[in-house]
Amino acid sequence: MASSHLLCNTFHFQPSCNLSSKSNISSFKPSGSFSFCQKLQFQKTPVVKATRKQVELVYDPDERINNLADEVDKQAPLSRLTLFSPCKINVFLRITSKREDGYHDLASLFHVVSLGDLIKFSLSPSKSIDRLSTNVSGVPLTEDNLIIKALNLYRKKTGTDNFFWIHLDKKVPTGAGLGGGSSNAATALWAANQFSGSLATEKELQEWSSEIGSDIPFFFLMEQPTVLVVIVQDIPSPVPLDIPMVLIKPPQACSTAEVYKCFRLDKASQADPVTLLEKISRNGISQDVCINDLEPPAFEVVPSLKRLRQRIAAAGRGQYDAVFMSGSGSTIVGIGSPDPPQFIYDEDEYQDVFVSEANFITREANQWYQQPASSSTNCSTPPEFS
Q: Coiled-coil intervals in this record (predicted)?
């Protein structure tokens, strides 16, 4: 059963603690090596197979293959690796204070969802530069990209000299409030660690990642969902993984910097994040708990976004348990159904809107996130990225 956690501040991440006491940082287990198999020669291993009429001696090569493959895993170096890079949504997002350094403290229920990118890594013969390509325009391919920043960070921390050819198959739109870039960076750190034989622990990867982005450490947490900031708690998972949802993003992107410029703390909700979490744990996700303090400033930055949210909520009455904006926008989430309202299909105004069904996902110990079987076919063509 997954757990949820409240973490102390935007840049300090702790995976677990207790409802009634102060938090203690839990230790993370070292990450396991990535599975690598090749064609093997084997000797047949006899096993006994029972049938109704008799007991017969048969040969089952699979056990021998698996045993030998495990030995190869420990010895053979990686040359290629493809990983799923999922995005996240914020079920609620409360801005609680502004710090002296200009950053804000927040309390937000984060959860990874099944929409994501695919990233292919190959070892490069070069010992001086990474090469990044992608399937969409507008994504930076230089050191401004968080993938390259993550690989540079890993080399700096470990002293390794692996450089890579990387292809980013982008499904998650940018400026969407879905953390796609942060997930890409976390995935790149995980990949670099696999190519190096897992020199770093998951805890180290998590701690290092905060140097290039405050959201990135979230993706290294073993348990999902995660609540960031203010009070630290460990409670049973407040949301089942099989809740369907739809993600709807208009072509307009939201600049996080511009949204925060428009944010006014005195206009923020006064709802207690702990109370919100308790309500979700007790009653599930509903409209009254899906509070996002960044919605009003995002609606100032992109006025059409407010109208889109209102129309989805009105058209989907009875269809969705809640309709809300994720993060700093501009994705609108409808919880309770994978289908968008009909006007998204019918009206020319929304012909370029990005639509994807999704559900909550987690990952297993010592493994990265696995691509859901349906995730390659459940979304519309990505809009122009900016």
A: none
